[in-house]
Structure formats: structure tokens, C-alpha cells
Amino acid sequence: MSKKHKVIFQPSGRRGEVEEGQTLLQAAQSLGVDIEALCGNKKVCGKCKVRIEEGYFEKDNIESGMTHIFPPVPSPDEMKHIKPQDGPGIRLACQCEVRGDVKVFVPERSRAGKQVVRKAAKELTIKLDPAVKKYNVELKPPTLHEMTTGDWERVLKFLEDDYGLKGLTFDYLVLRDLQDILRKESWKATVTVWMDKEIVKVEPGFVEASYGLAVDIGTTTCVGYLTDLNTGKVVNTESMMNPQVPYGEDVMSRITYAMSNPGVGLETMQKAIIQGLNEIIERVVKDIAKDGPNPGYVIDDLTIVFNTAMHHIFLGLNPEYIGRSPFIPAVQSSLDIKARDLGLRMNPSGYIHVLPIEAGFVGADNVGVLIAEEPYNQDENVLIIDIGTNGELLLGNRKKVCSTSCATGPAFEGAQIKFGMRAAPGAIEKVEIDPETKEARYKVIGRTDWSVPHQQMQTKGLCGSGIIQIVAEMFKAGIIDKSGRFVMDLGTPRVRKDADGKPEYVLAWASETSIQQDVTVTQGDVRALQLAKGALYTGAKLMMKKLGMTTLDRVILAGAFGSHIDVEASLTLGLFPDCTLDKVYAVGNAAGDGSRMALLNRGKRREANERARWVEFVEIATDPAFEKEFMMAMHIPHMKDRFPNLKALLEKANSKVEIKA
Amino acid sequence: MSKKHKVIFQPSGRRGEVEEGQTLLQAAQSLGVDIEALCGNKKVCGKCKVRIEEGYFEKDNIESGMTHIFPPVPSPDEMKHIKPQDGPGIRLACQCEVRGDVKVFVPERSRAGKQVVRKAAKELTIKLDPAVKKYNVELKPPTLHEMTTGDWERVLKFLEDDYGLKGLTFDYLVLRDLQDILRKESWKATVTVWMDKEIVKVEPGFVEASYGLAVDIGTTTCVGYLTDLNTGKVVNTESMMNPQVPYGEDVMSRITYAMSNPGVGLETMQKAIIQGLNEIIERVVKDIAKDGPNPGYVIDDLTIVFNTAMHHIFLGLNPEYIGRSPFIPAVQSSLDIKARDLGLRMNPSGYIHVLPIEAGFVGADNVGVLIAEEPYNQDENVLIIDIGTNGELLLGNRKKVCSTSCATGPAFEGAQIKFGMRAAPGAIEKVEIDPETKEARYKVIGRTDWSVPHQQMQTKGLCGSGIIQIVAEMFKAGIIDKSGRFVMDLGTPRVRKDADGKPEYVLAWASETSIQQDVTVTQGDVRALQLAKGALYTGAKLMMKKLGMTTLDRVILAGAFGSHIDVEASLTLGLFPDCTLDKVYAVGNAAGDGSRMALLNRGKRREANERARWVEFVEIATDPAFEKEFMMAMHIPHMKDRFPNLKALLEKANSKVEIKA
Lengths: 661, 661
Prior knowledge:
Two copies of one chain form a homodimer. Chain A has a six-stranded mixed sheet, with helices on both faces. Chain A has a six-stranded mixed sheet with strand order 29-28-18-19-20-30, sandwiched between helices. Mean pLDDT of chain A is 87; it is low at 57-71 and 114-118. Chain A is of the alpha/beta class. Among the domains of chain A are: 4-110, Beta-grasp domain (Ubiquitin-like (UB roll), Roll); 132-204, Ubiquitin-like (UB roll); 376-409 and 529-652, 2-Layer Sandwich (Nucleotidyltransferase, domain 5), CATH 3.30.420; 411-523, no CATH class. The A-B interface holds A 142-144, 146, 148-153, 170, 172-173, 175-176, 178-180, 315-318, 320-321, 325-333, 335, 337-338, 341-342, 357, 359-360, 617, 619, 622 and B 142-144, 148-153, 170, 172-173, 175-176, 178-180, 315-318, 320-321, 325-333, 335, 337-338, 341-342, 357, 359-360, 617, 619, 622.
């Protein structure tokens, strides 16, 4: 029989009873205490540190006579994350099991704040021609004297006579309720037609409201845009962490999870994301849905984009073959799948439209970017960088467009950065470093004003988009050199060595933070960023070579993250080859924009299929020049390439950094 | 003094009064209900399980004060045989005593004497062009060096290149398993394509076997013909009682059941028939199915016919509106519905093809008859009589065909006939009555020899097809007159009055039967038959009038029952207007033949849709002439119409009966 123990969380004071053997993270979740847990119990991120304040751990094995005593001893895995300066009693909440009544303190930096939604919808200009349309129908009541025809036939005749729609069929579930619905409002009804082909809903009376959901499933974040199909406007947006994160933070680890748990791993992850999407559906419709057991049924159409691995897992397709050479996906074309076949709690007769994927790892999300930005309609040479957990690049113009995928690692998302955190309140997102004094001023998410040195702030760490701007500032201030190495002996206490003798820069002193620690940027952080930006640069460079291009006319930064990058910083660091700064701009979640466009205009679906096949996928990792290019691209902004635009920019700003022009 | 209680057996509908304390098995035997009882009441075989549906069990032991309440509690001996999966209310018929009025359901497997399958499949001549076809596919293993394409795209390319199939799609479930199946036999696979449109199965390796199931759901009986789609041959046939019978013996009572149990009645009946069909599927494939949890998955296609009410209930469509004026069905067109949407345990990606219905009560079964017999390709005037629980008529030629539905009542099926029973061993199916002595000789199903008077036989009753021949013999022997009235004082003990003073004819003396009762034909039986045949005759007559026909060139008797009718007797009684006897013939289960044809040839599906709309439905019940015509048609063979062919026939046989010519 299971025992229960009392658990109290500080400083919130939340308390309750939890079952013996549950982890503190599970206990926290069940008691509504937010603890940051990026990696999902994998002992990898080390973000969920908590301090055991008081506790009684009783004997769990009478025979051995062993007694769990306080403070509990962390496992070797935990020890990798626990530093002496963390103080006594620190454990990872995801690893520490409840064995008796316990009081736990959750340090500020372990507290999860609601993530700032970085996938907000921007206004789109597109002709409204959605795949589902509603038609009002008013039938004459049948009589015995006319040639008897069925309800189905009479609805079809009306649609043909009044709207010119021919050869429609009914979804089976719609047929099932047709008779009663037609009679409910004296033969007045509203018929929802999908792609001029199939009737996917019949509602009593005349209904105008028509909704679709445009979805973008990222490796880390999922977002759904509830869209009024009559106006094209987004009426509500809901986002959440991808519930597959516990099974792996990146694409490859999820593929591995599926392969190493045959028969259950894939199914578990598919179920998780379907459930997650159902939760988004439930939340996103709460203001417009009718009462009843199925509020999501107001959604008649759904478009969805994701990378190839998320695509496969979402559809329950074995991701093994896209994870290994020759990287063959199950399907590339777009798909239309009945919502009920996937268990989605929207209109079960409706379809979800899965945008096509390009190749290997260049997925439907990149196709979304493609149809949103339309490089194939440009005369200029356009580079589009879509940065999520992976980086995808599109390069070209109306003559030709190439795509590729870069393994950037998670640095841009704040993971594997010592004080990295999600873009949530308390995260530093912008820094100014004085080139003379090396002193820093910064801006924190959730506050409108900039820091005043030594003033107490809610500062906890720094977010992914912030790190680029911060490292660019460090470079411009001469704190790091072109190779990314720290310049020591600058006469400031902010540049120092840590306990292991590794250089770091203090961005905020402990007294300015709510975590009572100095927030720093380490040599390791700079290296992680160099690897990430080097991968992007190399991808762009090798594609330019393939297309015979020597200059870029325009650079578009896409992605939830891309939209928050400081464009000047991205040029300064060399995320991409030189370009006029006023031709570098962020477009936000372009993958999501593509999903929304496909929702609003069915021509965009055709366009997506055609262009996904037309774009040429370039495998850069197998290019013989890759290694050498990558090594050079690690430099800031680059070891050899010329940056005339950047040079002009920095000169104008009186920077002392030398740039090749 | 002994008490009597009313006992009703389902699904046969047999009922009667039995003495208190008799076992249900004894009751069944005395009422001519077949219950398997191998061990002879020894509680050993457990074959005689029945379900108590409704019933009142009064105190059976005053002293103990015990009250038998519903559901009755089985004894420990019975419990050895009763499994939890048998469900509630199950008892052994040999142990359960009648203590009050009771309604008992005899499950299919407890029924003795496998019903003579009257829906056996005859050989059809039809061009093989089934809706599902299999194609062998052999792909080149993908390499990294080719332009990467998905598995889906490579299969489609092969089908286009090698077989000219364009624009196919995959069913979602097929896509889900595609990758692993293609790799299982080194890129050799077999693809099943539905209607040149959709891939509904992919199997590893080269598979040739291809199966479909043609189904005919009657109000009383269901049958499935497992068909080899490569040869067109029926490889197995399975039939069963319609499991909806407990909810109503005829169409109208099932509609009433649905209406009087809103929210559950329809669903219950739909579930019952789907479960029944799944049982047919399981049994019909047992010789050809692979091991595994889903033997029925070998079936890739299914065609189905039924009357309009069975159609609606099967599809979960509210049957209310076809049960009342203006009799509007939900849909008339043919339907293609995913097997999984209905919960059928065949290939879940496959479709079931529901044949179209004509109008009101003239259902898909009649369309089956129509495309099997093709009256629209005849120069002659053809009358097709399809007799099931309802009677449907088709009349016409290549210029025009009309259809109608006649409420014949269940007399033709042996129901509401005092000693009527199913066409099972022990049923009298043929009689000869000596015109002089009025003595009868008869033939019983399950025996090849005719009766020798007073010899002990397993005689139990008479079957539906038998009653026609028997009454015709009685008419020819002068036992009943043209109006159907008994002629008394014929100087034979066989013509007598029953306890209520009603005339009857003794067909078999109690000593010749296994039920220890005289088997008789009563005045009520003759009247029931007259009503039934009068309805058919009136329908034919009014349609002839509408079409301006004066003679019939051919009469086709269809239906499981029709195929066993003695054609001479049917002409003698006047089931239809006069016709040359050699142009009257039975074709067996023509509705089932139509279902099979639609399974084997997709052109027949088009033809069915076109012809179902082309045939004109005639509402005979509302014809002002109906009442008068019906009254005259009740006579044997008719009150006024001339029967030159019948007259010649009877004169040749030296009958003394006078017929108008």
C-alpha cells in the first residue's frame, strides 16, 4: 500500500500530501508550484535545483538498516550540475524522491515564469479563399406528392442550383445527423464544404462564424492561431511547450527514443503531441465555443507545419529512416487527414492539412517560411534564416532557391548557456557595454526600464536572443577577440576567472539579481554561440557557392527567436555573410505565417506542394569544403571574408574593432 | 391444479402457453423452437444456453419464502457452463423452469438444426472488374545520391510508370505502416488500390489473394458471401439470424423501437447488426485468414444491400422519417464508407459500398435484384417478385420499369402461421392431398422420403415456402373454396373445428410428430396467406395498369424464400396475374446476387445508381383503386381476373376446380 508524505514548498508556501516515491518535480507540478524543467527529467539541464530545508527521510529498507538521512545525497548524475557555491542541501527536483515529510525551497532561478509568447501573430495580407466555406441552405419541406428524394439529394440539389457546387459528397458522420439538423430550424441549415468536394458539417439555421486553426509545432514550442475564416484575423493565440520535450530535447534524441522503445516510444510521443494540441484547441476556443462536451468542434479546418521529425512523430510514422542515411521520409507531399483519424478534438469530419516537407530535415515548417516569404518571386538574392531548435536556410531568387538544414545546437534557445533561460520575466534580453569601462547596462523581460547598476532587480539569467546581442557587445567592447577568446587584464572586475580558472564576464552582480549569484557569460557560452553561428554561416556560404552568388541583397531572420534577434548584433557576430543593415530584418514566426496563409488561401496549398518540389535541397554536411568553411566561420564575424557593410557600421559607431572590407 | 404461463421465444417469435414447472427446453420443444440439447437434460453439454429477456418468476417455494426474481439465479450445476462473457440473464434451458410469463432469446449458437441456408450462392456470369485491385511493386533501394524522395512518392511513381495509375492517394493508416512494410521484403510489396483512387493496403512481398465480401442484410436473415476477387468465385458463405430481431420482428416495429428509445434504441440496433456482421466476417474467413488478431483484414472490399429501414439502422441514421409520411430517406445514392468508421473488422482502410436505395421502403436490396435481373434490358414484360419479410415488386421492360413495395406481413416466412417454423429439419415443405380422400402425404426437411401416414417422424411444423404449396393443395382438393373459406362436411376427420369452433385441416397427426400435437392448417393461416398474396397481386396489377400492360411474359420469384416456392402452387393461389408456367421461375437470392455483382464489377455500381434513379416508384397504397383491387385479389386465384394458363394446367391435372379463362 502506498504511503503519503507532507511536502511544503517555499517561498510560495504551497503544501500538500504526495505519494512516497514521487519526485519533488512531480510533487511541485501536482501542487501548482512552477519549477523550471527544460529537459524533462533527463538530468541534463540542471535547471530544477531545489534546496531541502527540513526533512525526514525514513528507513526505506529495514533489513539493510539503511536510513536515508538528511541531507539526502545527490546521485552522481546530479552532482554534475551541483556546484559547491550552490550551498548545502541542493538536489535536482526531477531526481529527488519523497521518502518522508519534507520542506523544500525553490530558488528564484529555478522558478518557471510564464514564457513570453514569442510566436504572436502578425497581420497578413492575403486573398481570402479558405479550404472550408459555409453555405446557407433553405429547403422546401418535402411532401408526399413530389417525387420522393432523400435529404442528402435535396441538399446537394440546392447547393448545385444556388451555388454551382457539383458532385459533393457527405462525410459519414455528417450524414448521420443530417435529418434531424435539417428539421431543427424548419429546413434552414448551414453547410460547411471542404475544398468544393465534401460536406464536413451541417448546422441548424443560418450560421456565419467559421473558424480554422493554423498550427506550428516546434521541437520546443507549439502554437495555434485561431483564425476567423471570414475576416482572416487571428482571434486568439495559444502556445505551450512541446509535450514531447520529456522524451528528448532535440530532434535526434526523440528519434532515438522512438527507436530504443519499439512499439511504445513512437506511440507515446504521438499521443503526447496530440494531447497537447487538443489542449491548445480547448484553450484557444474558450471565448467563442458553444457550451457542450466538444467546444473544439467549432474548428472546421486546421493547417499544420513542423520539421520532418515532428511531422513523422505527429503522424505516427516511424522516424527511424529520416534519422539515418539515406534519410528517406515516409511522405513528402501535403496530406489531408480526417481529424478523427488522429483523435483531434476539432470538427471530427474536418481535415487537417499537413503542409509538404522538402527533404530530410527540411520540413513543412520551412515550406511555411517559403510560401510566407516567397523568395521565388524576388529578383534579389534573398537569404532566409529560420532559427528554431534547428536552423534552416533558404537562399535564392526567382530563378532558383536552395534549402539546407544546419545543426546549430540549442545555444540560440538559451540551453547549454550557463545562465541561459527561456524568454520569460527575469531574463536579460539586451545589454550595452561601455567600451571604455566595460560596465554593463541591461534590460530585463518584464520591465520597461534599463538597469541602474547595483539596483535590485528580478534578474535571473539571459535568454537566447539576448545572448547574441550580449556577445556582440562583448566583442565590440574588446572583451573577446575575433577568435572568441577572452581578453584578460582589462582592468575591470567584471572580467575574471571562475573557480575552474575559466574566463567569464559578469553581466549582473549578485546583488542585482533575485538568485543571489553573479549572472555571467562564460567562455563556454561564447564557444557554444560560435558553433551555432558558424553552422549558419557555413550553410549560407556553401549555398551561395552552389548558386554562384557573391553577395546577399537581403537577409530575413525568421522564427520565434529570429524575430527578437538584434539585427545589428547578428551582423556583427557574423551569423551570415555581409549585407546592408537596412536589408536585414526579422519577420517573426514565418513558419506559422505559412501555416496561416495555407489556412486562408487554398492556392497557397498548391503553391506549397509545387514549390516544395521545386526548391533544391543541398546537403551541406557532406560537402567536402564543409569542415574548412566551418572552421573559418567560427570566427567573429569570419576569419577571412570581407564585411564592408559591417565595417562601415562599426566605424560610424566609433568601434575600435577592425573588420575586413 | 396446474397453472399456465405465456412463453415467447426470440428470435423466432414462437409463442404459446406452457405449464408451470416445465423447463424452457420442454417449452421450446412443445412450441417447435429448436434448442440444441445434446446431453438430454443432463446439465453436461451446456449447449442449451438461453437468455431471459423479460420475465416474472413468482415464488416457487412458499415455505422458504424465496422469490425468484429477474434475472433468475442459475444453479451451481449451470454455473459450470455459464461464462462471464455470456452476459447477464443466461440460463441453461434444460434447467430453468417456467414460473411466470417469460420472454426468452435463443442465441444463434444454441439453435439446433443449422438452418438450411436458403441464400446459397449461385454461379454468376459477369466480367471481373472489382473496385479493389492488387498491384505488385518493386522499388529500387534508395541511395543518398539520388534526389531524395519519400516512400509514398516512390510507390506512386512506380504505379504510374508500370501501371498507368495516376493521382493516387494513401489512406492514412496505410501510410502509417508503409515504411516498415516496404523494407520487409527488400522493397517488394503488393499495393491494393480502391477505384483507381486510393491505396487501401500495402503488404510485404508479392501477394495474389484478394477477397471481398458481398452482404445481404435481411430483416430476418443476414448472409455474407466471401468472394475471391481474382476468380469471382464464392469461397465461403455464412449466414445468421439478424441480431436485431429481439428489437422487433419487422421493419415497422424496429423503427418504433428506435423512436420509443431515443438516444439508445437506434444505437443498440446498429451495434447489434455491426457485431453480427463482424461475426459473419470472422466465420467466413476462418479457412483463409492468416493467424493474428484481425483475421477479417483479408477482406478489402464489401458491398451491402438491405431494405431502407435496415439500411438506415445499419448506418445509424434515424429511421423515424422513413416510417412516416412523406417517407423521406436520409440518402438514396450509393455510399462508400470507411470500414473503420463503422467499426467493421475487415481491412480498416477499405470501404464498404452501400448500394443505392430507390424510394421509401424500396431499398438497396431491390436495387440488387434490379441489377441482377436487369429487366431494363428485356423486351418482354417481366414481373420480379422479391419476397422477404416485405414484398417488393419490379415490373417493366427496356422502356420503363416500375417498383413498389407490398406489406405482405410475415406469413410467407412462416410467422403468424400456427405451426409455422423456420426452414429447418422437421418442417413440412411439400404436401400432396388426395382430392377424393383428402388424405395428406408430405415431405419434411432433413428427410429424403415422403411420409407414410401414421409413421413416427421428426415432424414439427411447416415452413414458409411450404404453406403456399399446402394451401394450393387444399384449394385443389376442394378443402377451401375460392374465397378461402373451409368447406366442411367433407366426410374426413382431417377437416374439423378447433376448440374455438374455427375450421382447420390436420396435416399430420400427433403420432407422426415430435411435438405430440396434430399439425394443422387453420382458417387463420389461410387468411394470413390470402392477405399476403393479395398484396402482391394488387401491387402487380396496379403497376400493370400504370404501364398499360395487359399480360405478363415472365415472372421471376426472387428471395431466399422465393427460390423455394412451388411455382405451380404460386400460380394456383394467384400470387400474381396469369402467366405461362414455363415462364415462371425462381432465381434464389437475387438481392444477394446484385450485391455480389457490385462486388465483382464496378460498372454495376454505376448501373445501380443510374437505374435506381431511373426506375419509377409507384405508391400503391395511396392508389384510389387499391382497396377494391385488394379485396378481389384476396380470392384464389382472383375474384374476376382470367387465368387461361392456370385453367389449362389444372384441366390437364384433372382438377375439379373451376377457373376463369
